[in-house]
Amino acid sequence: MGLKAVHFGGGNIGRGFVAEKLHLAGYEVVFVDVMDSIIDQLQKTKEYTVTEIGAEGEKVNTITNYRAINSKTHEEDVIKEIASADLFKLEPQPLTARLREQVTCAVGPNVLKFIAPVIGKAIDKRTEPKPIAVIACENAIGATDTLAGFIKDSKNTPQDRLSSINDRARFANSAIDRIVPGQKPDAGLNVEIESFYEWVVDKTPFAEHGHPDVSAIKWVDDLNPYIERKLFTVNTGHAAAAYYGYARGKKTVDEALSDSDINKLVHDCLGETSNLIVKKHGISTDEQKAYVEKIIKRISNPYLKDVVERVGRAPLRKLSRKERFVGPASQLAESGDKVDALLGAIEQAFGFVDVEGDEESAELSKILKSNGAKDVVGKVCGLEESHPLFDKILPIVEKVQKSVK
Questions:
Q1: Residues 78, 122 contacting (CB under 8 angstroms)
Q2: What is the mean pLDDT of the segment spanning 114-134?
Q3: How many CA atoms lie within 13 Å of 60's alpha carbon, on the beta-carbon side?
Q4: Which of 102, 139, 190, 205 could form a disulfide with 170 if both were Cys (CB 3.0 to 4.6 A apart)?
């Protein structure tokens, strides 16, 4: 049997990034989703294109050799794809051979608990001699650990089977970095995406079995520096530009960053996060400075036409405790370092309310209107009153509450 990957999430990042790289590595990709429209299109269409956009021009890859299953209506088929010996059968290989099967997902961090039950059932039924690789490709620290926690819950895996779950599955955290801008209305399954990408995965869980053979993945022994550098540079800068741009009437991220004031504000934010990254992970100042400039150039790409509302969506998640603003600011505040620029971006994020099409911005508006400022800081940012960042964010919330009507 050939290589096979089951991928949860048929959206733009799933089709345009993860599936593209798995396809180029020789995998058959089985998409799993609950969205009828996406699954129907994938089932009826034999191929789609991924157009990589960069300053050097465009490159088009045609994606084929995939199938799609609706987990809402065909859960047993999903379980069989992951667990069935017929569908995941391997040619006889020595025990040191690399893992050939994997489950990936790009569904959004808040959806992990909903896909865990079907993955748990499938893993429990596996009889293959080698464990399957499970990798959550999400913009969140420790997303695979989070998914694994849901899978190992007693509701999803029999507790008497937990001691042997490593024989059936290995869970590896990852860090992904690729910008997928808003797509053309008539794009269908086709995806336009930036040419730059980074996909880094922790190789230590695979031990004697070896990691899956995907050339697009950078396999590392210590993922934490990559996760925090990416989240606190790419995601912090991208979101800060979007929130400042939205507040000042800019339509796209590149338009926002062409404004010298916003450009400086974003650079200031990344100056503070760079201070954390250099001190914590031993990355040199020059290397981090070069990385920041590369990221600013990437997100300033006018060919991406990255709309600020798209980049700013889900402000509740982006303002949460371990995310791109509060995450680095809390660590810096604990060591007494400067966080003024990050606080400015946090204020802009709190002002991203009642944006059309974004449920979290509407929920943020409700929270601001129906809670005291201290409760908002605790509920949204996950900070205790004793934390040194709490009293710095409190006046920001009080200020924003006066303007939210």
A1: yes
A2: 90
A3: 5
A4: 205
